[in-house]
Amino acid sequence: MDIIWLGHGSFRIEIGGQVLLIDPWIESNPVLPEDQRGAAIAGATHILLTHGHFDHAADLPHLAQDLGVPLVGQYDLMSWWEEKDGIETIGLNKGGTVDLNGVKVTMVNAVHSSSIGTEDGPRFVGTECGYMIEGEGHTIYLSGDTDVMADMQVFNDLHSPDIGILCAGGHFTMDMKRAAYAAKTFFDFKTVIPCHYKTFPILEQSAAALVAALPGVDVIEPEVMVSISL
Questions:
Q1: Closest by Cα among 144, 214, 208, 218 to 186
Q2: Residue ranges of the domains in the chain?
Q3: Per-residue pLDDT tens for 77-125?
Q4: Which fold has domain 2-229?
Q5: What are phi and psi of 6, to 5 degrees?
Q6: Strand 163-167 with 191-195, pairing
Q7: Exposed/middle/buried for 225, CB within 10 Å: 0-12, 13-18, 19+?
Q8: Which of 10, 21, 106, 203 gives a 20 to 30 Å CA spacing to 99?
Q9: Cα torsion at 66, 67, 68, 72 (round to 10°)?
């Protein structure tokens, strides 16, 4: 399995023969080099979306159309995009699981907000979420944009994820301190990968506090377009 950070909250996860693009913010992502945008999305089999904010969904649905792959996400937003733009979608809701050719994806709760920009102003369709992604003997908890939640205890009891991809930039989501609290209070991760940081000055620029707070956990500070093999 290879986890590749595309910057901000975007990832490419190669798992179980599938290539999952997570919240792929490609065209206007300030930390994804223009000459690597093609490689970032090459061979994608599915796109997973956690919520509708521009820094996660600005390139959708045209990216799904260009790649000819299904867009997976919260039912209400998927239904709206499928009707509006004619793209292939897989809509589910929190607690639901879909099998993506052998990779199991379960939608879980998150605490944030979700809207998309339209010509008529913001449109609220569906709600924010995270995912459990299971394959190759691993379970990844992808938090999406969220704060700490007591729900995380339930997630661990049901799924026992060994890898946590946690938003940790602060201001809009958990910061490093809160992400560390979530990891050590509710989970038993072997590996933690922070995200949604360093993109803008308003966000945290270092994961040092997360590393210091999680002794015994392999906290990997990702580099853009550098594969993390697990």
A1: 214
A2: 2-229
A3: 999 999 989 999 999 999 999 999 999 999 999 999 998 888 888 888 7
A4: Metallo-beta-lactamase; Chain A (3.60.15)
A5: -100, 10
A6: parallel
A7: middle
A8: 10
A9: -110
